[in-house]
Amino acid sequence: MSLTSRHFQITANDVAERAGVSQSTVSRTFGSGALVSARTREKVQKIAMEMGYRPNSLARAVVSGKSRMIGLVVAYLQNQFYPEAVEKLSNAFQARGYHLLVFMTSKTEGDVSHVVEEILDYQVDGIIAASVAMSSDLLQRCAAAGVPVVSFNRSQDDASLSSVTSANYAGGGKVAEFLMQTGHTRIAYIAGWEGASTQRDREAGFVETLGKAGRKLWCRGVGNFVMEDAKQATRAMFANGFANGFANGGFANGIEQAPDAIFVANDHMAFAVMDTLRFELGIKVPEQVAVVGYDDVPAAAWAAYNLTTVRQPTNRMVMATLDILLDRIEGDGIEGEGTHAPHARRVEIDGPLIVRGSTRPKNAKDTKHERL
Amino acid sequence: MSLTSRHFQITANDVAERAGVSQSTVSRTFGSGALVSARTREKVQKIAMEMGYRPNSLARAVVSGKSRMIGLVVAYLQNQFYPEAVEKLSNAFQARGYHLLVFMTSKTEGDVSHVVEEILDYQVDGIIAASVAMSSDLLQRCAAAGVPVVSFNRSQDDASLSSVTSANYAGGGKVAEFLMQTGHTRIAYIAGWEGASTQRDREAGFVETLGKAGRKLWCRGVGNFVMEDAKQATRAMFANGFANGFANGGFANGIEQAPDAIFVANDHMAFAVMDTLRFELGIKVPEQVAVVGYDDVPAAAWAAYNLTTVRQPTNRMVMATLDILLDRIEGDGIEGEGTHAPHARRVEIDGPLIVRGSTRPKNAKDTKHERL
DNA sequence: CTGAAAGCGCTAACAG
DNA sequence: CTGTTAGCGCTTTCAG
After folding, report:
1. From B57, B101, B298, residue closest to A78, measured CB to CB
2. Secondary structure element (H or E) that encloses residue A348, with its range
3. How far apart are CA B371 and CA B304, in angstroms?
4. What are the pLDDT digits (tens) for A206-217?
5. Which residue of A has its CA nearest to B305?
6. What is the pLDDT of residues B123-182, one digit of tens each?
7. Nearest CB to B304: which of A77, A141, A275?
8. In degrees rounded to 5, what are phi and psi of residue B183?
9. Under the phi-then-psi rule, with left for phi > 0, alpha for psi from -120 to 50, and beta for the rest, what region is B6?
10. Please, are residues A148 and A161 in contact by the beta-carbon 8 Å criterion?
């Protein structure tokens, strides 16, 4: 009849009427509490089923203050690492009765905070920030709203922000060890976006481990976690006398002074680096240059790349994220009795180096102690 | 004080009190209607801002019947096509003030319906089913709840289900034309999951176009849209005398009787096929075998694959999805005055063949009219 | 164990 | 234009 014909929703009231009980009894039947007699419960459930009744999650959320939704903020899905993480996060939370409200955002500061405000409007029970920076203003607002936040695959100094990452510093170190052990002497690095903790930590672990062995980085480029930038960095490294890198002199005299190994801050860029080396510059990988990535995304195992890389253990990262968030959401005030901001948890999960064909085997050219 | 210390939410009431207006005026200030004087509006907005007030979307949804959430059901994100689509869908809907509630599901029938029920509980305004089948039971329930559904990248016969796909039949035809024109005579096909309309349509267009030219498919394998299965199919094609394919006799006599071109039902599998050919079987692509994919995912353009493929125009597919859903959601009863089920819209968007290096250029071996 | 009643935060008529 | 009054569908005391 009404023009704006909204659609019929079967309410708990309808069921109650038909079942000859009160609406609250219906509510109790579907709410977790077992505070209803077995007989009544069955009768109500039967009738509810017949009528096709299902409780309205939103109404429940309004009154209970729990929406059972988790906001996931994510900046880009190009890098295979994120789809994989999203999938696993989604599955893990779904298994616990939560659902992900996914919000895409560009990495610009303003956009992120705009998006987080909107997320909060939906009364999410928690927020996962995947590779997006959270300003402390923003964290304030989340805290004020009582919404726990965990930063996934990024850490920040902010003491109130929980984070889950892999052991990036250690991982960078493993790569350095490996490249030195396999006889490389001119070791280069292509950085990710310099604002990212993952980038910072991987590079620090890498460079400091080289340093402990008395080595220096041969040269350095910046790829910003973007394929095209990584290609540029690669070209610059091999063509223009280290336009972007250390002043080791350039090499009009040919490949001999070019890097013999490149550690790339993530797999996504490493693919672009390998393609540029092989198909644009005609340089052989791994024979002339070894390439190592970070993440161990599925494509790293594809034969065309067969990329040596450090694995980020997504399963455990997801579990840790789930733990942190659910503890804070469902935690029965066990920790931090008062309203004091509970201490942020920072979880770092170690991941192995996966050696594949983009690097030479350990003894192929063991010039381990050879110096320039 | 309360043990279950729920967190402070600033309500419209709080703002009203502080601003000396009624709660409904606050509501009106934030609701779209301009039914409030400029002065009052500004005053309210100022105070609201100071207090950090934001309307509770859920409460609004309960009373208005509009949640401004769209449920997106998606089965797997391994295939790059989906992350890309999700990202674009998310952006498009966000720009219109809607947000995606993402639900992962395995492809098993039971799981899907379970998930859809949960989606409906959240009072979503619409549902996008990305590559998951919807049983007609399920469609019934959605219809009963007044929730429009659109099937993304799949079509079904069900007349009540709107769908958005690319022109798969035509696309399959383009590939056949191209392979024939570039002189291939032993043309094979590796199928996706046989339950998928995309698979069916691509193959039909391909095979029928070959047929019109008096050609037959040389052999056929099944990859189920899964990399490992595609590899198996490839091995079978080149090793065991067509274990899975047509009975053309096998070829103990070598590569001469093997296919000289393979159309793979999507890019994701095509990568696995190329890897198997090149690195496992030592067969050269495109020199000995041409490979064509479907989708034009980002990796198809990566130099290591450089894959000839049919582009699925995601942008336009997303726009169409948006259109269909928003028409039904916001449509002021313009179409289908009554409560009659509005006719489902089926949109098919044409995509170009992108010729790259996994196939030989047109005139490399132009044996166009050569028959066996 | 169950019903009645009081809200959750908001929108939407309805008067003025 | 604005305040008052009903609800939306549900959870949660509070009596019995």
Report:
1. B298
2. strand A346-349
3. 33
4. 999 999 999 999
5. A304
6. 999 999 998 888 888 898 898 899 999 999 999 988 889 999 999 999 999 999 999 999
7. A275
8. 85, 20
9. beta
10. no
